[in-house]
Write a structure and sequence with these properties.
With about 260 residues, this protein is an alpha/beta fold. The protein has a single domain, classed as Alpha-Beta Barrel (TIM Barrel). It is about 35% helix and about 15% strand. It has an eight-stranded parallel beta barrel. Helix 3 packs across helix 4 and helix 5 packs parallel to helix 7. The chain is globular and about 45 Å long. The mean pLDDT is about 100. It comes from Catenulispora pinistramenti. One of its GO terms (molecular function) is isomerase activity. Keywords: Isomerase. Pfam families: AP_endonuc_2 (PF01261).
Length: about 260
């Protein structure tokens, strides 16, 4: 079993959308996660006309927009519930306007624990009740909630169109076996992110297969789950400028067999 290939624009931050679409076409990685930030072509400050123009560029470019990758932190105590829910919904509306089915959010708690979980549950339930049609919220395995069991603990208490992104690195780097992550995320899995690094401490992006993340085991777990979504490369050169350019990384396709 294989999956269609996608990449995040985190690896080509600031690149005009027409050039992103051309990169996708030329490499065969035809799905996109669009990083939403003030220094990107896509952000919540875009007008309705700008959103329509961006969608036209992407659709005419022959790519599939999978997600708007927000930096909303649903478990953070640094913002109020109202502020967090409003930010989540603003990014969900951007996803709708760009034709993306998902908006990515982070946990982002300053201190993990019951209070952080409760904040995330409360806010995700509130946002899910007001989502625009056709858009789901995906909580990523990341930061304060890196493991599958962390995400499942939250999502088991959430109703509505909310699922998860399995970023393969974070459960692995914190010692959660892939089999455990698989079982924990099984009821909630909508999307996956693939990457490779040298070690849990040395996280500069490496071309797939050149690091130590057990990608073969990851792919086998997805097959066992019957996963039918996209395989998205999150090339973190925004945070690791000494990494090779995304265009070079995209030359190395995942080996699923």
């Amino acid at each position: 079993m294989s999956w269609p290939l996608a990449f995040s624009t985190l690896g080509c931050s600031g690149m005009p959308l027409a050039d992103v679409a051309e990169l996708a076409r030329s490499t065969g990685w035809l799905g996109l996660e669009l990083r939403a930030a003030d220094d990107e072509p896509v952000h919540v400050g875009l007008s309705a006309r700008e959103r329509a123009a961006a969608r036209e560029v992407l659709e005419s470019g022959g790519v599939t927009v999978l997600a708007v990758a927000s930096y909303v932190k649903v478990a953070s105590g640094a913002v109020s519930d109202d502020e967090c829910v409003a930010a989540t919904l603003a990014h969900a509306e951007l996803a709708r306007d760009l034709g993306a089915p998902y908006v990515r959010v982070f946990p982002g708690a300053e201190e993990p624990g019951a209070e952080a979980d409760a904040r995330a549950v409360r806010r995700l339930n509130a946002a899910a009740a007001r989502l625009p049609e056709g858009v789901a919220i995906l909580l990523e395995t990341h930061d304060s909630h890196p493991q599958g069991v962390d995400i499942a603990r939250v999502l088991s208490q959430v109703s509505g169109d909310v699922g998860t992104i399995w970023d393969v690195m974070h459960p692995w780097r914190t010692g959660e076996p892939i089999a455990v992550t698989k079982e924990a995320l099984a009821p909630y899995l909508r999307h996956v992110q693939v990457k490779d690094v040298l070690s849990p401490e040395e996280r500069k992006p490496l071309p797939l297969g050149e690091g130590t993340i057990p990608l073969g085991e990851f792919y086998a777990a997805l097959r066992e789950l019957g996963y039918q979504g996209w395989m998205s490369l999150e090339w973190e050169s925004k945070w690791h400028p000494d990494a090779v350019p995304l265009a070079e990384a995209l030359k190395v396709k995942p080996v699923f067999d």
